[in-house]
Design a protein that fits this description.
Blueprint (H helix, E strand, L loop, with lengths): L7 E4 L4 H13 L4 E8 L6 H9 L4 H29 L3 E8 L4 H12 L3 E5 L13 H8 L4 E4 L4 H9 L2 E4 L4 H14 L4 E4 L6 H15 L3 E6 L12 H9 L4 E5 L3
Parallel strand pairs: 1-2, 1-4, 2-3, 4-5, 6-7, 6-8, 8-9
Antiparallel strand pairs: 5-9
Pfam families: Usp (PF00582)
Family: Belongs to the universal stress protein A family.
Protein name: Universal stress protein
Length: about 260
């Protein structure tokens, strides 16, 4: 089997979907090391503890410092829960907490740019204490991460089981981006059987529906698509077809950015 390439960056917010993303991601990418990141913003969730912190501060500066400290420590505890799940699933892991000053998806994307993981892993329904401005956290990460992003939606039991041994279904539109996506899938996913889908033309939704049907027919473990188009922040392109696949295909989806 092809040896693992690099470490993984995992976004974890403590939700059921984020936990399921770790379990499914470990089936697709076994034997990895995962940096499990919880992105947080004040005030953190526990109102009773926030009240106690206020009693220990005599100035606004002290209150700010204590709130930041306690919020960060609480975020590390959440990340540690994610690490426990990762280890139970077969990954080595380390926790990390990141303070958000904007969209949490942007924080994860910037961290991906900094550490250059082999892939970013997120659930498709993840939430955070920071309101998403440009869509869900997973959408934002997909649009702006320089690394491939594995997005895990809610799955039925058969679909989860397929993540362990099912083939890799690669959407191919004949572009260089699709070819790069296939090569990246070969590198990341090892010796799995690869099925290339040349979906018929039409609307993005029609292409996504065709890929969803083919994924079910082959009992695919993951669907791989290339990203095309331009974003407002960088030369990363996520076209309408890739986004339709993310929202309408009932399998884990690996979105591979086209090299700048």
């Amino acid at each position: 089997m092809t040896p693992p390439v690099g470490d993984l960056l995992v976004g974890y917010d403590g939700s059921r979907d984020a936990s399921a993303a770790i379990a499914t991601g470990a089936r697709l990418l076994p034997g990895r090391t995962a940096r499990v990141v919880h992105v947080w913003a004040p005030p953190w969730a526990d109102s009773a503890l926030r009240h106690r912190v206020r009693r220990h501060a005599s100035t606004l500066d002290q209150l700010t410092e204590l709130m930041e400290h306690e919020g960060g420590e609480a975020a590390l505890l959440v990340a540690a829960d994610g690490v426990a799940l990762a280890r139970a699933a077969g990954w080595a892991g380390e926790p990390s907490a990141k303070r958000a000053y904007g969209d949490p998806g942007l924080v994860l994307a910037r961290l991906a740019e900094e550490v250059r993981p082999a892939a970013v892993v997120v659930g498709s329904r993840g939430t955070s204490g920071v309101a998403a401005v440009l869509g869900s956290v997973s959408d934002f990460v997909v649009h702006h991460s320089p690394a491939p992003v594995l997005v895990v939606p809610p799955l039925l039991s058969r679909e989860r089981a397929a993540a362990s041994t099912g083939p890799v279904l690669v959407g191919d539109d004949g572009s260089a981006g699709a070819e790069h996506a296939r090569a990246t899938a070969d590198r990341l996913l090892g010796d799995r059987t690869v099925v290339v889908s040349r979906a018929p033309g039409g609307s993005a939704r029609a292409v996504a529906a065709a890929l969803d049907t083919e994924a079910a027919d082959h009992d695919a473990g993951v669907v791989v698509v290339g990203a095309r188009g331009r974003s407002a922040l960088r030369d990363l392109v996520v076209g309408s077809t890739a986004m339709a696949v993310l929202h309408h295909v009932h399998r884990p989806v690996l979105v591979v950015p086209t090299p700048s």
